[in-house]
Amino acid sequence: MDGNSFDFTAIRGIQAGSAYYVIMVPLKTVPRLFTFDDESMPPDLRAQRILNKARIPSIAGYIVDNPSDYILSSLCASIDGEIVFEPVAADGPLRRVGKLRIDMGATILINDGQHRRAAIEEAIRERPALGDETISVVVFADHGLKRSQQMFADLNMHAVRPTKSIKLLYNHRDALAGLSRDLVAAVPLLRDFTSFDRTSLSNREVKFFTLSSIHQATAELIGKKKAGKIEKKDAAFAIDFWTAVIQEMPDWQRIGTRDVTAFEMRRDYIHAHGVAVQAIASAGAQLIAARPDTWKQWLARLRDIDWSRGNRALWDNRALVAGKLNKSRNNIILITNVIMRAFELPLDVEAQRVEDLYSPDAPPMKVAS
């Protein structure tokens, strides 16, 4: 930086006939160099969405908590002001490498990455040593508000969030995700019939479970969330529980022997869906707390429940709404209540409240004799 400009080593490229540049910016420079639109402005006068401040602490925490292996993708910005690129060489490959000089009076507006920018600012306040590290920034010459708005739309129109299952598969920082992966690997039916890259299963899908549903159910079972400490006994307990459940679910076993397809099971039975898997875990946790020595014997009561979707008297307004499976938290509680009654366990206050609210006129729940 001299008195009139910011100077960056840059690589020059061409997209759609226009030049753009990739520069490396020290993290400590990011907050004062890059701006974003005033959130008080109406949307049609901004070049990006407003800042969701709730996202910033989690991103900043990720940077601060992982100083040796965090990773941040590039920011994308537009420069409204004078820029000059001075190549190292007049021809050859080095003509694309040089110095990008940005007038200090220029406005550099972030088109993509405003949450990363805000999180960097917060992370540096907490861990100043990060300030000398760098982030790559792709910069374009500004061609007005309309172009900046179009850039934001173009950058985000094809963005697809990864499914929860695949995020769990690849997340090696989350101990609970690791437990879920170990559980699936250890139980043959789960290993062979769990989808690792989908959160919902199509009619043609041969898998029966999803990693995300197993993960949610197991978190319910062991009573620990993402930030909870996972111990070796938790994995052994989860493996023992799900192995015992499978032994009491003949329909699930038929999936393993390929006597029936996963699609047919999802079409015909409530227990073939993630909401029921989570409900089994929730009721199982309460069963184990109430009967720690005999819980495996009581799991046999799972066989007594009529899980058929055709049992509309039981499942309408509990698992099914207008004939379709509903996945809300209240529906999970209502399915859990069926299992709790099968286990001859009382409902807690919240479970009874949901029961009364959603099924005030329903006949008493019965299980097969």
Summarize the structure.
With 369 residues, the protein is α+β, with helices and mostly antiparallel strands. Helix content is 42%, strand content 16%. The strands form 3 sheets. Strands 4-5-1-2-7-3-6 form a 7-stranded mixed sheet.
Structural class: alpha+beta
**Termini gap:** 82 Å
Provide the spatial order of strands within the biggest beta sheet: 4-5-1-2-7-3-6
What is the count of helical runs? 16
Shape: elongated
**What is the gyration radius calculated from CA atoms?**
28 Å
| Mean pLDDT across every amino acid position | 87
Can you describe what's shown?
- With 369 residues, this protein is of the alpha+beta class.
- It is built from 16 helices and 11 strands.
- The protein has helices spanning 30-33, 56-65, 114-126, 145-157, 164-170, 175-186, 188-193, 211-222, 232-247, 250-256, 262-268, 274-290, 295-298, 312-315, 329-342, 349-358, and strands at 5-15, 18-26, 75-80, 83-87, 97-103, 107-112, 134-141, 194-195, 209-210, 320-321, 324-325.
- A 7-stranded mixed sheet has the order 4-5-1-2-7-3-6. A two-stranded parallel ribbon has the order 8-9.
- Helix 2 (56-65) packs across helix 3 (114-126) and helix 6 (175-186) packs across helix 8 (211-222).
- It is elongated, with a radius of gyration of 28 Å.
- The model is unreliable at 40-46 (pLDDT under 50).
